[in-house]
From TrEMBL:
Keywords: Developmental protein, Disulfide bond, EGF-like domain, Glycoprotein, Leucine-rich repeat, Neurogenesis, Repeat, Signal. The gene is SLIT3. CDD domains: EGF_CA, LamG. It comes from Crocodylus porosus. This is Slit guidance ligand 3. Disulfide bonds join C725-C734, C766-C775, C804-C813, C844-C853, C882-C891, C927-C936, C1072-C1099, C1122-C1131, C1139-C1149, C1160-C1169, C1179-C1189, C1201-C1210.
């Protein structure tokens, strides 16, 4: 402190000042000591002399004790007046000579232990102390309750120590503490609740530590805190709401922290803008576009998230995990490694992973690497769509927290309990789409928590009894799409499915044939028989040696400390893995410990045993071991062997003498991957197509072209290969230029400079807008753009351009365009322009529409002119030009004595709310749903919706030979469809979606038959019951009849009891019954007596549209939407070719819109080419297309045209023609809302020319009602007129 100039000690409790206190402060010029408790005895006499020598410092320093000195300035007291009573003592600071620690000084309730080399906080301090100073020691921890007994403490300073551990209750009970100084330590985390009791705290210094995360409730309760310093820590983010409890905060220090300014820190920028209390200049460290920018000055929208930084809080525990596995994507606690062509599990996963996604990869074996032992938070593993054939024992050790394991779409052929060891908390296990053929009773051992198990689409035909006994929590199991053989081996499953309350999806039998497609749980126990059907996919496993583990034909005894081969190895073993110590074995080791890995095995000269394990060998030339006459053991494991035809000799060689222990596996080609060299049949080693150059080049490296820049490659026995380089390059592979700048490595116009010290090195001077070692990077200038109003930033070179939305302009899109200024006003026809926040709006005058009021509305669309009047459009209105004799605004008044046309529906009464329409001038009733008949007088469809709904058909005519048919639709599994009388034995019901027929008499056992078909899919199904010659047959959907067989006697049914449709609860019926017929007689529900509640007519459908779909418009109105090729109100009129049934006799029919014309062959004429021309007749050369040739008074031929045709050759017609599209939607304004027709309307107009001064006008029109749907939700119906016949008539 030799450079200290200003020292402020006023307003403290100082009573003594040792004589050497200021000796090391030669430059001090300001000293404040006033307002202390100085004891002016002989020990303070030096201070009076010291202050007199420095008159400008220490002013207003007064004595407080002893009493005779109180209030005197220390600088004015004479030296003789500074007296000590009693024996002279050495001057020292002491609070209590009894309890003050020997390493500290105590005075006026202050304990001073600064710089005393302490390693722990001293105990047994005076209980009434106010302040303790422990800075500049070597304290590493603050133990529980370290200060709790000192209730009067106001200040604690433990700065500049080595504290890394603080007990959560270290400061418990210190309600008077107002200053806590902890800066300059090694604190990484603040324990939960550390500051909860410090309700009076005003100053908290945590700067210069290593804090990397703060819980959101770290500062709860610190309502009086004025200053908080977190300066110089390791904080990358701060939880939103961290500072919310700090109601009195005035100063905040956050600088020198590596903040990641992503979306999680946006709140802090907003907080600092609203509360400018951060005075240290906190800045961003990442991302690069925001680096070194002050947080409080960055716009909120620039705080965006990316996947590079993952900073989270899990269950109020702080952690940061910035390392994501290679080829994976990490977001929060989700690690997504899907679709990355991985062949094995990642070697590392973040500790707080909860969801691991490994689907769509090439993993074939799940190895026991201990990966999951540290992942206590892991809950879900997805391994869908891999190539998994094997799961090694112990793979899932430590994964007790995993709740969902998905192994769908893999190649597992067998599963056993050891595969799933460690998954004690598993709740969902998905094994869909595998090759599993058997489930044994130990397959799911240890999985007591599994609730959902899916074995859908495997090869399972048999399940070992008790296979699911260990799944005590099972609630759902999917066994569908498996080829179950329902013989005696599977009888237990039927009972188990009926006894257990689990959702199973009703798995079905595939064998034997007579049980095919029948649900297993519906099969009678006596039908599970093994007579001539004893097949089982679950065979007893051979014994396995006690020291080993066995899987299929593979026995593994590795790492068991064996000295000899174990006893009891199965006879059909194909692979034996062991680590047996055989004494006196001579072994030349070239395994992983060898510094140089082998790539190509050539000539070997070793004697007894050869270990090539763990190298890079893909091929072994034939005859490589010919000289090794004593070779008895060869280890080729963990090599990428390429097992094509060139390695066939090696397969035969190891099979001949079993010299390879069955460890070596093939790595290629694809068809040989993971096959064992020892056990794979020799004929599988085939050459198909070219071999990968990387494999061939292992024995001939020059094939891979290792020499760059036109270098020449030569094989070299020592260095593997040697390159002869051209003059401009050097290096082992000729990749290094002689002159680093010779190839101009600087891109984008950069200038290359050689370094002075090494010509092999260079640097690039980049033009503006580029950076990088070779000027290859064009930084995204849009990362820090100022484009406003949601405009799009387009990156350029050292700049960017803002693409504005339509309503904005300016370089930064910050100027709003006023479209309504006179020079930009887009509104037409004197409409009013209104400027909006996002554009403009034109208020149109009546009669105009469109975005710019540019359209003069055709008010004749949907006009009300009647009797063929012509509509003339006007602005916001129209005028009707009436035919002769008609009058009125809409020409609605006919001429006198003219009878008005009446409709055929006027005197035709449709029943039950049906609508009458005219079809071919005949009235037709459009029935509501459920009704039928010429006048909709019959009710043939009813909907059962009540709890106890049924229909009674009294005195049903059931004869000994009878037929009952009906159609049913329902989505329920169970219910009563039909039963005959209260005491009769006949019933037809739903049972688990099937139709069940029951015939139950008093004197004989009940007889039952089920339909194979299910009818609970919500679609209509036909059900037919036939009683004939002592038989009862059930037919569903016209399928194969299901018969009860020949009964002992003719079914006895009472002719006088009623027939019930539906029934009472609990077996009532919910659904629709349609078209009930008894002996082919349609039953009318309308004429029945009062039915039960909950029986409604119809089934929300109608059947009047012959070739179309029925659409409901209102509660009582429907409309038909016709299929292509059909038209008419009921879709019963076919849109045919006009030329069909044409009358052209000697000519070709040509279609024109909805009419046709005849093009006559030479020698014929007339409208239908029915008149033969006379060769001498002058009319032969005059062609009258639609008329006859006549002679004038002068004898000259001319054409007399047929009606509606004119012109010299009668070729100009007055015909109805389409206007625009054949059909279109009609728009109409209704009040203040816009309405359109719900169907398209044909638009026809009369076009053509007429002679004799006549005009082409409509002669016949049709009117039809159309529904208009409005934007405000309302609708209305209005008649529209279309022309169907045009002709020449008097001009209107």
């Amino acid at each position: 402190m030799r450079d200290l100039e200003i020292l402020t000690l006023n307003n403290n409790n100082i009573s003594r000042i040792p004589v050497t206190s200021f000796n090391h402060m030669p430059k001090i010029r300001t000293l404040r000591l006033h307002t202390n408790f100085l004891h002016c005895d002989c020990h303070l006499a030096w201070l009076s002399d010291w202050l007199r020598q420095r008159r400008t410092i220490g002013q207003f320093t007064f004595c407080v004790t002893p009493g005779n000195m109180r209030g005197q300035l220390v600088v004015n007291v004479q030296k003789k007046d500074f007296v000590c009573s009693g024996q002279r003592q050495a001057a020292h600071c002491s609070a209590s000579s009894i309890t003050c620690p020997s390493a500290c000084t105590c005075s006026n309730n202050v304990v001073d232990c600064r710089g005393r080399g302490l390693t722990e906080i001293p105990a047994n301090l005076p209980e009434d102390i106010w302040e303790i100073r422990l800075e500049q020691n070597f304290i590493k921890a603050i133990p529980p309750g370290a200060f709790s007994q000192y209730k009067r403490l106001k200040r604690i300073d433990i700065s500049k120590n080595q504290i890394s551990d603080i007990a959560p209750d270290a400061f418990k009970g210190l309600k008077s503490l107002n200053s806590l100084v902890l800066y300059g330590n090694k604190i990484t985390e603040i324990p939960l609740g550390l500051f909860d009791d410090l309700v009076s705290l005003q100053l908290l210094l945590l700067n210069a530590n290593k804090i990397n995360c703060l819980r959101v409730n770290t500062f709860q309760g610190l309502h009086n805190l004025n200053l908080l310093s977190l300066y110089d820590n390791k904080l990358q983010t701060i939880s939103k709401g961290l500072f919310a409890p700090l109601r009195s905060i005035e100063t905040l220090h956050l600088a020198q922290n590596p903040f990641v300014c992503d979306c999680h820190l946006k709140w802090l920028a907003d907080y600092l803008k609203n509360n400018p209390i951060e005075t240290s200049g906190a800045r961003c460290s990442n991302p690069r576009r925001l680096a070194n920018k002050r947080i409080g000055q960055i716009k909120s929208h620039k705080f965006r998230c990316s996947e590079q930084y993952l900073i989270n809080t899990v269950e109020e525990q702080c952690f940061m995990d910035l390392v994501c596995p290679e080829k994976c994507r990490c977001e929060g606690t989700i690690v997504d490694c899907s679709n990355q062509k991985l062949s094995r599990l990642p070697s590392y996963l973040p500790e707080y992973t909860t969801d691991l996604r490994l689907n769509d990869n090439d993993i074939s074996v799940l190895e026991a690497t201990g990966l999951f032992k540290k992942l206590s938070k892991l809950r879900k593993i997805n391994l869908t769509n891999n190539k998994i054939k094997e799961i090694r024992e112990g793979t899932f050790d430590g994964a007790s927290g995993v709740q969902e394991l998905i192994l769908t779409q893999n190649q597992l052929e067998s599963v056993h309990g050891r595969m799933f060891r460690g998954l004690t908390g598993l709740k969902t296990l998905m094994l869909r789409n595998n090759l599993i053929s058997c489930i044994s009773n130990d397959t799911f051992a240890g999985l007591s928590s599994v609730r959902l198990l899916s074995l859908y689409d495997n090869h399972i035909s048999t399940l070992t009894p008790g296979a699911f006994n260990t799944l005590v929590s099972l609630s759902t199991i999917n066994l569908l799409s498996n080829p179950f053989n329902c013989n005696c081996h599977l009888a237990w499953l039927g009972k188990w499915l009926m006894r257990k309350r689990v959702v199973s999806g009703n798995p079905r039998c595939q064998k034997p044939f007579f049980l095919k497609d029948i649900p297993i749980q519906d099969v009678d126990a006596k039908d599970f028989t093994c007579d001539s059907n004893d097949e089982s996919s679950c065979l007893l496993s051979p014994p396995c040696p006690a020291q080993c583990t066995c899987m299929d034909s593979v026995v593994r005894c590795s790492n068991k400390g064996l000295k000899i081969l174990p006893k009891g190895i199965p006879k059909d073993v194909t692979e034996l893995g062991s680590s047996v110590s055989i004494p006196k074995l001579t072994l030349f080791e070239v395994a992983e410990a060898t510094p140089v890995a082998l790539h190509c095995s050539d000539i070997l000269l070793f004697t007894c045993s050869r270990t090539l394990h763990g190298n890079d060998i893909s091929s072994v030339p034939e005859g490589s071991f010919n000289d090794l006459v004593s070779l008895s053991h060869l280890a080729l494991g963990t090599n990428p062997l390429h097992c094509d035809c060139s390695l066939r000799w090696l397969s035969e060689w190891v099979k001949a003498g079993y010299k390879e222990p069955g460890i070596a596996r093939c790595s290629g080609p694809d068809s040989m991957v993971d096959r064992l060299l020892l056990t794979t049949p020799t004929h599988h080693f085939q050459c198909k197509g070219p071999v990968d150059i990387n494999i061939v080049s292992k024995c001939n490296p020059c094939l891979s072209g290792p020499c760059k820049n036109n270098g020449t490659c030569n094989n070299d026995p020592v260095e593997f290969y040697r390159c002869t380089c051209p003059s401009s390059f050097k290096g082992r592979d000729c990749s290094m230029p002689i002159n680093a700048c010779i190839q101009n490595p600087c891109q984008n116009g950069g200038t290359c400079h050689l370094t002075e010290t090494n010509k092999d090195e260079f640097s690039c001077s980049c033009p503006l807008g580029y950076e990088g070692e070779r000027c290859e990077v064009n930084p995204d200038d849009c990362e820090d753009n100022d484009c406003e109003n949601n405009s799009t930033c387009v990156d350029g070179i050292n700049n960017y351009v803002c693409l504005c939305l339509p309503n904005y302009t300016g370089e930064l899109c910050d100027e709003v365009i006023n479209h309504c200024v006179p020079e930009l006003n887009p509104c037409q026809h004197e409409s009013k322009c209104l400027s909006l926040a996002r554009g403009f709006r034109c208020e149109c005058l009546p009669g105009y529409s469109g975005k710019h009021c540019e359209t003069d509305d055709d008010d004749c669309v949907g006009h009300k002119c009647r009797h063929g009047a012509v509509c003339v459009d006007a602005v916001n209105g129209y005028t009707c030009v009436c035919p002769q004799g008609f009058s009125g605004l809409f020409c609605e008044n006919p001429p006198p004595m003219v009878l008005l046309q009446t409709s055929p529906c006027d005197n035709y009464e449709c029943q039950n709310g049906a609508q009458c329409i005219v079809v071919h001038n005949e009235p037709v009733c459009r029935c509501l749903a459920g009704f039928a008949g010429q006048k909709c007088e019959k009710l043939i469809t009813v909907n059962f919706v009540g709890k106890d709904s049924y229909v009674e058909l009294p005195s049903a005519k059931i004869r000994p030979q009878a037929n009952i048919s009906l159609q049913v639709t329902t989505d329920k599994d169970n219910g009563i469809l039909l039963y005959k009388g209260d005491n009769d034995p006949l019933a037809l019901e739903l049972y688990q979606g099937h139709v069940r027929l029951i015939y139950d008499t008093v004197n004989s056992p009940p007889t039952t038959v089920y339909s194979v078909e299910t009818v609970n899919d919500g679609q209509f199904h036909s059900v037919e019951l036939v009683m004939l010659n002592q038989t009862l047959n059930l037919v569903v959907d016209k399928g194969t009849p299901r018969s009860l067989g020949k009964l002992l006697k003719q079914p006895s049914v009472n002719l006088n009891t009623p027939l019930y449709i539906g029934g009472m609860m609990p077996n009532g019926f919910h659904g629709c019954i349609h078209d009930v017929r008894i002996n082919n007689e349609l039953q009318d529900f309308k004429d029945l007596p009062q039915q039960s509640l909950g029986v409604l007519p119809g089934c929300k459908s109608c059947n009047i549209c012959k070739h179309g779909i029925c659409r409901s418009l209102e509660k009582t109105s429907v409309i038909c939407e016709c299929h292509p090729g059909w038209t008419g109100p009921l879709c019963d009129q076919e849109i045919g070719d006009p030329c069909l049934n044409n009358k052209c006799l000697h000519g070709k029919c040509t279609a024109t819109n909805f009419a046709y014309t005849c093009k006559c062959t030479e020698g014929y004429s007339g409208m239908y080419c029915d008149k033969k021309n006379n060769s001498s007749n002058p009319c032969r050369i005059l062609k009258c297309n639609h008329g006859q040739c006549k002679f004038s008074e002068r004898g000259e031929p001319y054409c007399e045209c047929d009606p509606n045709y004119s012109g010299e050759h009668c070729d100009r017609a007055c015909l109805p023609e389409l206007r625009g599209d054949p059909v279109e939607v009609i728009h109409k304004e209704q009040g203040y809302t816009s309405c359109v027709t719900t169907s398209k309307v044909p638009r026809m107009e009369c076009h053509g020319t007429c002679s004799n001064g006549q005009c082409c006008v409509p002669l016949r029109s049709k009117r039809r009602k159309y529904i208009f749907q409005c934007a405000d939700g309302s609708s209305f119906m209005e008649e529209l007129e279309r022309h169907v016949e045009c002709g020449c008539s008097k001009c209107l």
